[in-house]
Records
---
Amino acid sequence: MDKELHLKLTIRLFTDDNQRCFGPGIATLLERVREHRSLRAAAASMEMAYSKAWRIIRTAEEVFGCKLLDSTIGGHHGGGAVLTAEAERLLAAYRAYQTDVERYAQGKFEEAFGFYRELDRHLLN
């Protein structure tokens, strides 16, 4: 049975001391915060522990030197969170970069492995 090949890239940003600080996980987490207006709900939608979500956010905040979330404590109307302008800018930059890299990589992948479908496979049978 012939299988199709496809490319799967994961783009992660690291500090100079090799600490992971931004990637697909935090990007999705921030998008879910935007959608749910709550870090707790965002984490739950990803089946992630709330404590892990906070740890990811805090790590990125330390690296980038800015707040990523504006949070309000619960109360009469309940708590919530929204992305800061800095978080929106980081998220937009990450997604744009990801799109550019994936588009470029897909072209290079097709150049390098386009012959795959024409391989002579009768020798394996």
---
Amino acid sequence: MGDPIILLWLVIAIVVALVLIIRFKMNAAIAMFIGALVLGIASGLGMATTVSTISSGFGSTMTSLGLSVGFGVMLGQLVADVGAVQTIANGLLKVFGEKKADYAMGSTGFIVSIPVFYDVGYVILMPLAKALAKDSTQKILPHFIGGLVAGLGIAHTFIPPTPGPMTGGELMGVPIGVTIAVGIAIGLPTFLISMFIYNKFFLGRKGFWNPETDEEHDPALEAEAAARAKELTRDESKLPGMFASVLPIALPIVLILITTVWDAIVGDDVNGNPLTPDFIRMIGTKEFAMMAGTIAAMVVCLMKHRMTLKQVEKSVNVAVGAAGTVLLITGMGGGLGAVITAVGVGDILKGILETVNMPVILFVWLIAALLKIAQGSGTVAMVTGLTIVASMGDLGVSPVLIAMAGFSGSLCGAHVNDSAFWVTTKISGLTTVGGFKTYTLVCFIQSIISLIIISVASLFFH
């Protein structure tokens, strides 16, 4: 079968999956399975072979990511339920002061969104942001919304252990410690520069924000948001201290980075075997590190009777339910990737890339951005996009920067088919136009800024 026909079937397979997700509201994992079937069978892989290839890809992805993603979701749920997010927010507000309160909110979002899902972090922090906006004499509501979107969004997109960046790094064969380090190195300046641009050139422009058209006051929605926030907040007398709040988040990152740095310093012996002690290598595995963080979160929950054993168990059970969907989507990304590799899409795309002479970073960014615009989920966009790119082999650019380009592209074009758009809009009391002026715009700015940073980095690191 000719190369153009295989590419045509790839496009058809992706379109089929997107139509099932968008038009028929089908679960993304099922839709991706059907898309993989279409691609494999139509490309001549064979019916039974296509199914076995999907299963093999799914299984290998679960082997490498299943435990760490599951522990990560548990960790995030426990940190949210015990009130650690509130403690971090209160502490940063004291450091930044009123003039920079929006940066305090954004920084809080940046920290807590490393293990906590975007929507959970937003639900918890938005009531505090609204209160600050009401009391502030220098900042208005979109300053705080923009800060939260910037902080929560960039960490959720670039820094493991959230499932998207963890899976993306794995697909490109990048050690998780490297993904974390580079994700922070790119994500932090992107967050700060994007907030400055948003505040200076958009909110600072007269007439950009109009409360009459950009904000709405629906008592029912506000009551629902307040009820959701109350479920996820704790009595202040029972809040953990700053050290206890940050510990479960920081511990996995520190353990992984210790091993990564140790490996880099001591290297391998003459036979290629690592010289790093076995114990150090163990604690730096993503599975062990995430388990350690989860246990630390449990200890924080149980200390000083902040939560009962039954409440901790309930939190873990909620997390397990949420993890199931995430793992299915992640695993099916691996299944689709196995089919893409088997039918030779990678070699075809690599040849096209060499012919058009487009920078690799921009090529990867565009794939992820188009997928994001089409179907709304950033995780699906980056996993699917990087799955396609991973099948292309060595592209002459550092794999970690290719992964970062996929993450960056998944921030572009966040609009009404993105569930986080509606979480942000409705909980904040905004109109759809207000949502575009906050969530969509801030994500777009961050996508462009991070693309520029990654492109510059690719000139020096190959």
---
Amino acid sequence: MSQTIIDSNFNFPGQISVYKGKVREVYRLEGDLLVMVATDRLSAFDVVMPKGIPYKGQMLNQIATKMMADTQDIVPNWLLATPDPNVSVGMACEPFKVEMVIRGYLSGHAARQYKAGHRELCGVAMPNGMKENDAFPEPIITPATKAEKGDHDEDISRENILARGIVSPEDYEVLENYTRALFARGTEIAAKRGLILVDTKYEFGKTKDGKIVLIDEIHTPDSSRYFYVEGYAERQERGEAQKQLSKEFVRQWLIANGFQGLEGQSVPFMSDEYIESVSERYIELYENITGMPFEKADVSDIAARIDRNVREYLAQR
């Protein structure tokens, strides 16, 4: 097994604070700088799995970096530099307390809700007569917000977001427009690689001067679901599961092994062989979506490598 980074404890020059999310760890520095470290942690059903996935953080960070570059002409983003394979440095922003989830297909959470008999998700109607993994007539935006207690994501409607004053009407219109533009661009990028961008989520923040920018990751297997174009129609016709590249295959494995993050459930044992298979699936997506071979970084001492690279970058600013 390759060495992984599942936790960090850096003390960068000018460091003010650190926030540790489910996968990323964000260090705030003087001068309104953020250093975001993508760990190898794996989260599913809002639970962090006990073992890290080799090279996962590197893959997520490098996919997000490429996708930020490929979309910066339509939506401004927070990114300034990537001084290490696992690290992004960018502008500090005040994040909006909603995740903008957009779905082009009836899959994942939406499919589970549909199967349970619901025909509305986050206040948005879902047509009758759909099969799992069918395309919606047009993409739907189904936002999520953090629960008041804990770290769990909760569905929320546009109307509720505005009624509760979580986002102003003016800002929310910008978030919706940016979300649709990013999804359209992501769909084009995926199509060129023989993939279908099924659904994804975007997070946004506001800079000190009031500019709304894209933050965090974009079009990665942690934030997005992809199908292969080849064979999609035939599988739908036969009622077969779609071949996909996303974290959904981990969720399905967990469900099959009796875990959905519910009270009283325990995470099933993940063998080294299973962990390696998850890493290989992430590499597969990386190479498919970027069109480039994945080059494994030196993992002999990931923390020391990150610390050295970030310090060198900061010294040159």
---
Amino acid sequence: MQHIDLICVGKLNASYFAQGVAEYQKRLGAYCEFRIIELPEAPVSDKNASPAAIEKALEKEGKAILASVRKGASIAALCVEGKLVSSEELAALIARQAVEGAGDMAFVIGSSHGLAPAVKQAAAFRISLGRITLPHQLARLVLTEQLYRAFSINNHGRYHK
């Protein structure tokens, strides 16, 4: 069975996001071994932090992210410069990995400051959820739903219309 990890920096604070993610996490269990790994956001001194302070925090988060990736898994980094993909394209990507690659994948959502360059460089794929900016908690819900949709597409389920 394919292993899919969602590595996120930060926690879900709103119960309605947590409930939505939990529902799709439960549904994904029929198709893959799905787990969510929450990592702490590196503290930045204040809201007007210097670029150097942000870079240092991202570097710390990046090391924790890369240490959390399952051995042999392909990394898919969610970032603004990533490729816009449709639900069908995401499904095809996951299916290709299952056939051609090791199969295991780690989708990564960074902190409010983004992702460390080291994570983006290590990523086999860079994906964007759209041209709009989403709060990280909403991005997690959207990505979890899209992963479920992708597996539903690949398994000819009725969820995707």
